[in-house]
Amino acid sequence: MLVTARPLRVAVAAAFALVAVAGCSSDDEAPDAGRIEVTTMRGAFLQAADVGPTWSAPETSADPQQMVSFCGGASTPPALPPGADPVSSSLADEGETGAQTLEQLALVYPDQKAAQAGQALLRAVADGCPPTVSVPATATTGKSEPAYAETVDVQELDEGGWSGFVLIRHKKYEAAHPGTADTAVAVLTTRNVVLVDTYAIYQLNKSVTAPGFEADWRKLVGSVVQRVG
C-alpha cells in the first residue's frame, strides 16, 4: 500500500484548485512490445485501497474528456489531443488542514506514432507556460480566493520505460491567508499510450512545500507504469 503525506481529516477550502503532470514517448521502444488496450490501463490505475486508508473515490467520476490545467493561475486546461480513447480515475483524501488528490488519465491511441503526436501537443502547451504568475484576490458568488503567486517548472521525466515530462507547480497564498498547493502533472508515453498522472496536495496555514511531496508523486506515477509493464 502506498501511503502519501497525510493531512488531518476535514473538508478542504474551496479556494484550492487541482492541477496535472504529463510525459513523452521514446522512438526506440521495441516494435514487438505489443499494443496496450484500454482495459489494461483501466486495470493499472491505482484504487483508493492501494494508496492509503483515508483515500476514497469521489461520488462523481472525472470527465475523461477534461484535462487538468498545466499552467499556473486561472489558465485553461489543454484540449484533449485527438485520436485517442480516454480513460480516467479520480481519488481524494481530505483532512482538517488540507487535502490530497490524484487524477489518472490514459490516452490510448491506435499506434505509437499517434501517441507521440499527442504527447508532442501536450508538451507544446507545457513549454508555453509562464514560469511565474501572480493572481489578485477574487470574490464571486459563493466563492472567494485570496491573492497568490504560482510557479511552474517543466522537467524531463523517465520512469520504468515510459518517457516524457512533469510540470511542478507551487502555489503560495498571501501572508494574511497562508496556504499552499503543490501539484505534479506527469505526462509519460510508451508504445501507444500517453499517461497524464496528476498528484496535488493542498495545505492550510502553511507557507512551504509539503514534506514528501516529490517522493509521493514519483511513487504514485511509478506504481501505475509498473503495473502496465
TrEMBL record:
This is PknH-like extracellular domain-containing protein. Residues 73-94 are annotated as: Disordered. The keyword Signal applies. Residues 1-22 form the signal peptide. Keywords: Signal. It comes from Actinoplanes oblitus.
